[in-house]
From TrEMBL:
<dbReference type="GO" id="GO:0005524">
    <property type="term" value="F:ATP binding"/>
</dbReference>
<dbReference type="InterPro" id="IPR002300">
    <property type="entry name" value="aa-tRNA-synth_Ia"/>
</dbReference>
<keyword id="KW-0597">Phosphoprotein</keyword>
<keyword id="KW-0007">Acetylation</keyword>
<keyword id="KW-0547">Nucleotide-binding</keyword>
<comment type="similarity">
    <text>Belongs to the class-I aminoacyl-tRNA synthetase family.</text>
</comment>
<keyword id="KW-0067">ATP-binding</keyword>
<dbReference type="Pfam" id="PF00133">
    <property type="entry name" value="tRNA-synt_1"/>
</dbReference>
<dbReference type="InterPro" id="IPR014729">
    <property type="entry name" value="Rossmann-like_a/b/a_fold"/>
</dbReference>
<dbReference type="InterPro" id="IPR002302">
    <property type="entry name" value="Leu-tRNA-ligase"/>
</dbReference>
<keyword id="KW-0496">Mitochondrion</keyword>
<dbReference type="Pfam" id="PF08264">
    <property type="entry name" value="Anticodon_1"/>
</dbReference>
<dbReference type="GO" id="GO:0005759">
    <property type="term" value="C:mitochondrial matrix"/>
</dbReference>
<keyword id="KW-0436">Ligase</keyword>
<feature type="domain" description="Aminoacyl-tRNA synthetase class Ia">
    <location>
        <begin position="461"/>
        <end position="617"/>
    </location>
</feature>
<keyword id="KW-0809">Transit peptide</keyword>
<feature type="domain" description="Aminoacyl-tRNA synthetase class Ia">
    <location>
        <begin position="61"/>
        <end position="274"/>
    </location>
</feature>
Length: 847
């Protein structure tokens, strides 16, 4: 039987004959790729020796669409294959990409290409986080309402007869920008959060949370503009505490708000962190955000002068097992009961003596034990963590003992220490005789069953306030009925769509409240007159479950198919900015845990590996006054930068790119100047992905990747010239020294394959992967001419180099591969190489 390299050479020669006969496509295994008249090489009939800027542009122009078409033909339907779900955080469709977008999406695209080459079923979806404050602010600034602004910026296409259809104006522009960067997303899975076919299911999940007792209303402080009479987001309050619009001093005001009870999942979410791989410090940030889950909240009803008031109070204790020893419930002087709209406000205010612990005429009845104890206003304003109410249990707290004795409060000792040192409960109803750990579990379980608290959480984690007095957000699907109270909209009536309001000024409270025809409705339960909720949801709700929708984006019957979610989830690699590593990640994990408990998915955690990439920073020049200068206003000829006109010395820093700091870089201009692959390689090579990039094209990174592309081109040129010289490769002619040189290349190539594969799959240090490939290309460039001509090991290593570089620089490697194929005696490398045995094997299924 012929040696393996001769068989491969036969296959290659048959392929070349097929190419010369002029078919339009070549079949590689199960895939279809462009063929015959491809690339600069085929167009001229000669290999271009010099890799100039024009050559780069010609190569990218030729291969860009062909690579895109090839990617679109790879099916995701074969569920018998292993899957890989790579997800990058989706953008707000502002209409313009910045270099931060370029970085995160280049990383995700590179990983997706690599996994496809391994034979995996891959999705790399993209969508648009389209609701939120930016559109609303833009509307106010332009004297429009958000719908009008949205029509012109996020995308309404004007049709005949003046009708409008929600389209893709800004989105289409951003898609073109992404496409020009050579990014191949799974566009058939595209989602847009402001479209009813998406936010219908956001509303569905909210109702499921409400039915589970995890969505509720209570009074909470908001930022109030007394001039415009409206609620402000934190971003609309300047550093002096004034309104961004009116300039008025912002006040704190209590309004009834909607919350999601994220504290109910604090303990399971904290525990689940232990089962996740290390997230480069993010797990620690998540753990710190949640806090130590050692206690729980319990619910109380309030009385005054022995009369039930209808008011409720939730208070925290770190020792719920000792609840039968409660002496009092303490609230802080800043509690909503003293400052909000409570019917008990006057009773509390009359009892308040600033600076003293005050006994009030209000009592609290524990909804679990039915014990009735007094409510006390403590002198200190700041409680532990984020608490404003806590349960006083003298048996477990010296501070509570002193307070109870000072105020003359009665209580029972409920903790007994046994001779062996264990502690057991006494005078505690059915929990009497239990040790404390068992009693903790039993009592909190009973409280959860009765829905009167009991979820184990920390003293620092708050429930998630999701109400926004905004127009451009998902309407909260609730109806307020005088007889029935809050009632969810029936599921069959979803979505509750946004009304078209006739005027929008940004003043006077929630914009939805002005749409009277929309607000006034009938109660779904009793059919009486009722009103719709006029708050919209925090946009973090929209992005808290979008990763599920990508698995089944066209589903009209449910948010997603359980079967499809179970196949694709969890996300194998989630990529995004570190600034979202706490709040967004926490909310996304919460929704995933909730959907698991609702039997919608089998996995609790939504993300397996997390890559929080650093920022792309630009150089800034700032006057002593704090004013940022444009680069054209700076004189850089001296030892230190100075103002070109005034000669003032400037403070030079590296900061996140922004228009206001004049340090931004237009991705399209950079691509035009250097080419797609150069920018991709620079972004990947300039720094490890978790570190910040200081954007400076004069540094070693950009010249380095330009030189490397030149070296790859030179390697292919040398190989092609050797093979077209008329000589036939004959390995048997190699001397022992030359064969040893080939074996050394083979061993080095195998080592590089192992290291590069680890970088792609484990630490995602793509900068290190590029460094390894640079090393391999250097070794190949030093090979003797006879080894280039005759050695199958050289040929094998050259092919492996091109294929390993392909996920990062798809255009140049496609052209190099096209040229090598005409002269190559190795099999076609459609898959990523593996280090197995004496010959390089390819990952993925056999053809």
């Amino acid at each position: 039987m012929a040696p393996s390299w001769q068989r491969l050479g036969l296959y290659a020669s048959l392929l070349k004959r097929q190419l010369r006969d002029g078919p339009d496509v070549i079949k590689w295994g199960r895939r279809v790729i462009p063929g015959c008249s491809r690339g600069i090489y085929s167009a001229t009939g000669k290999w271009t020796k010099e890799y100039t800027l024009q050559t780069r542009k010609d190569v990218e122009k030729w291969w860009h669409q062909r690579i895109k078409e090839q990617a679109s033909k790879i099916s995701e339907a074969d569920k018998s294959k292993p899957k890989f779900y790579v997800l990058s955080m989706f953008p707000y469709p502002s209409g313009k990409l910045h270099m931060g977008h370029v970085r995160v999406y280049t990383i995700s695209d590179t990983i997706a290409r690599f996994q496809k080459m391994r034979g995996m079923q891959v999705i790399n979806p993209m969508g648009w986080d389209a609701f939120g404050l930016p559109a609303e602010n833009a509307a106010i600034e332009r004297n429009l309402h958000p719908e009008s602004w949205t029509q012109s910026s996020i995308g309404w296409e004007v049709r005949d007869q003046g009708t409008c259809r929600f389209g893709v104006c800004n989105i289409r522009h951003m898609r073109k920008q992404l496409d020009r960067l050579g990014l191949c997303f799974s566009w058939d899975r595209e989602i847009t959060t402001c479209l009813p076919d998406y936010y219908k299911w956001t509303q569905y999940l909210f109702i499921k949370l409400y039915e589970a007792g995890l969505a509720y209303q209570k009074e909470a402080l908001v930022n109030w503009d007394p001039v415009d009479q409206t609620v402000l987001a934190n971003e609309q309050v300047d550093e002096h505490g004034c309104s961004w619009r009116s300039g008025a001093k912002v006040e704190q005001k209590y309004l009834r708000q909607w919350f999601i009870k994220t504290t109910a999942y604090a303990k399971p979410m904290q525990d689940a962190l232990a089962d996740l791989p290390e997230w480069y410090g993010i797990k620690g940030m998540q753990a710190h955000w949640i806090g130590d889950c050692v206690g729980c909240h319990l619910d109380f009803t309030l009385k005054v002068d022995g009369q039930v008031t209808g008011e409720k109070l939730s208070a925290y204790t770190a020792t719920p097992e000792a609840i039968y020893g409660t002496a009092h419930v303490a609230i802080s002087p800043s509690h909503r009961l003293l400052h909000g709209h409570s019917s008990l406000k006057e009773a509390f205010r009359k009892a308040l003596i600033p600076g003293k612990d005050c006994l009030t005429p209000v009592t609290a009845v524990n909804m679990l034990t039915q014990q009735e104890v007094p409510v006390v206003i403590l002198a200190k304003a700041d409680f532990e963590g984020s608490l404003d109410a806590k349960i006083g249990i003298p048996s477990t707290s010296l501070e509570d003992t002193v307070l109870a004795q000072t105020l003359g409060l009665s209580y029972s000792e409920v903790i007994e220490t046994m001779p062996d040192g264990t502690e057991r409960l006494s005078s505690s109803a059915e929990f009497t005789g239990m040790n404390r750990p068992d009693a903790f579990l039993s009592l909190t379980q009973k409280a959860r069953r009765k829905r009167v608290g009991g979820e184990v959480t920390s003293d620092k984690l708050k429930d998630w306030l999701i109400s926004r007095q905004r127009y451009w957000g998902t309407p909260i699907p609730m109806v307020h009925c005088p007889a029935c109270g809050p009632v969810p909209v029936p599921l069959e009536d979803l979505p509750v769509t946004l009304p078209s309001i006739t005027s929008f000024t940004g003043k006077g409270g929630s914009p939805l409240a002005s749409a009277s025809e929309w607000v006034n409705c009938s109660c779904p339960r009793c059919k009486g007159a009722a009103t719709r909720e006029t708050d919209t949801m925090d946009t973090f709700v929209d992005s808290a479950w979008y990763y599920f929708r990508y698995t089944d984006p066209q589903n009209t019957q449910s948010p997603f198919s359980t079967a499809l979610a179970d196949y694709w989830m969890p996300v194998d690699l989630y990529i995004g900015g570190k600034e979202h590593a706490v709040m967004h990640l926490f909310y996304a994990r919460f929704f995933s845990h909730f959907c698991h408990d609702q039997k919608m998915v089998k996995h609790r955690e939504p993300f397996h590996k997390l890559l929080a990439q650093g920022l792309v920073k630009g150089q800034t020049f700032r006057l002593p006054s704090g004013q940022y200068l444009q680069r054209e206003e700076v004189d850089l000829t001296g030892s230190v930068p100075v103002h070109a006109n005034t000669r003032e010395k400037l403070e030079v820093t590296w900061e996140k790119m922004s228009k206001s700091k004049h340090n931004g870089v237009d991705p399209e201009a950079v691509v035009e100047q250097y080419g797609i692959d150069t920018i991709r390689l620079y972004i990947l090579f300039a720094a490890p992905p978790e570190k910040d990039i200081l954007w400076d094209v004069k540094t070693d990174a950009l010249p380095g990747v330009l030189r490397w592309q030149q070296r790859l081109w030179s390697l292919a040129t040398r190989f092609i010239e050797a093979r077209v010289s008329g000589k036939v490769p004959r390995p048997q002619l190699l001397s022992n020294e030359e064969k040893a040189e080939g074996r050394k290349l083979w061993e080095y190539k195998n080592s590089i394959i192992s290291q590069v594969t680890a970088h792609f799959t484990e630490d995602f240090s793509l900068n290190s992967a590029i460094s390894q490939l640079m090393g391999l290309s250097s070794a190949l460039s030093q090979a003797s001419q006879r080894v280039v001509l005759h050695s199958p090991e050289f040929e094998d290593a050259l092919c492996a180099l091109m294929v390993m570089a392909a996920p990062m620089a798809p255009h140049i490697t496609s052209e190099l591969w096209a040229g090598i194929l005409y002269n190559c005696h190795a099999e076609i490398l459609e898959c990523f190489p593996l280090q197995l045995g004496h010959r390089t094997r390819r990952a993925g299924p056999a053809s």
